[in-house]
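Posting this for the archive.
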Amino acid sequence: MNKPSRHLQRSEESGEGMAHAAVEETSSDAWDAPPQTLRSTQGDIVIGQVVQADIAKFTAGWPLLQTPPLGSLLKVEDGGTIFAVVCDARTESIDGRPPVARLSGEADLESYLEKHPHLRHLLQTKCDAVVVGHRDGAQVRHYLPPSPAPLFAPVRICSPEETARFSQELDFLKLLLASPTHSDEMTAACLRRAAAAHTDGRAFLVRAGKELARLLGAEPQRLTSVLRRVRP
């Protein structure tokens, strides 16, 4: 099969025409290699608690631990289930004062914490997540829930199987693209992780690229930028 031409006809240089051309070009060049398989290492392990929430996002916090990767699908289960995608993460002091760097020869964080165990009680990790859906009875809805995630509810990383089921429908992409925080990077990271969870990751990415083209038809440069970041 011949690869699509990189040359855009002038008649396509508006909105959706340019967007679809970008999808075809990127799908040919970037998606030929199969995505890496996403391994389930955290499953239903609680990674933190909700410490701040509104309808569209929440912040999860926990003692000093490794942060969930950008684009990870999270779930909060407390009566109902709310799904969200990680858009930011940080480690900071509990009392608000910035930590002071002290070079003492340790090669990694664990070694440093073993030498200074009190720091585990002075630092905390937080991540912000954009709400992308909820479970309504047996149905998963890819739009905002009727109420925020409950405070102090446990937060878990979704398994690859849950990620694949949730991302069968792509309506949640609109919520990711509208986020004020790292929207393009988060969207691309989310799609990479979702593709790794699907049996046919390339087919999923092609379908996702076409949906991105529909949503970003009026922003061809942004579309091309996101598609390039989806590269497995």
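The chain is about 30% helix and 25% strand. The two ends are 21 Å apart (CA to CA).
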